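Translate sequence into structure tokens.
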Amino acid sequence: MSKQLKRIILEMGTGNDLYGMDYTKAARRAVQDAIHHSSLTLFKSLDIDPDTMEIELNVAAQEPEKIDLQAAAAELPYGRVTPKAVFGGLNIYDDVTDRTSVIVNVGIIVRLPL
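Result follows.
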């Protein structure tokens, strides 16, 4: 009997690049921010292989097409990742320095066959 995928985890994170308008750098930082808020002891406690995770990585930025999704997904150490970029995040322009800081948000949804 095949087990159904069940959503068990939602983590959110925020990352930024203050000087380079590098959306990928901000996205990678957002993923790191999200996963560093967790300690997923359930895998060891329940003897579940963490590579069985199906991970939906949602990345939101003002210019989502500028994100290297594979680089952002590579920040996740386990599981099969399906990344998706959408419009969101925030750009903040500084007229004194003529620079734009970018803020990227991520939502990481994890499903397991249970």
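Note: The radius of gyration is 16 Å.
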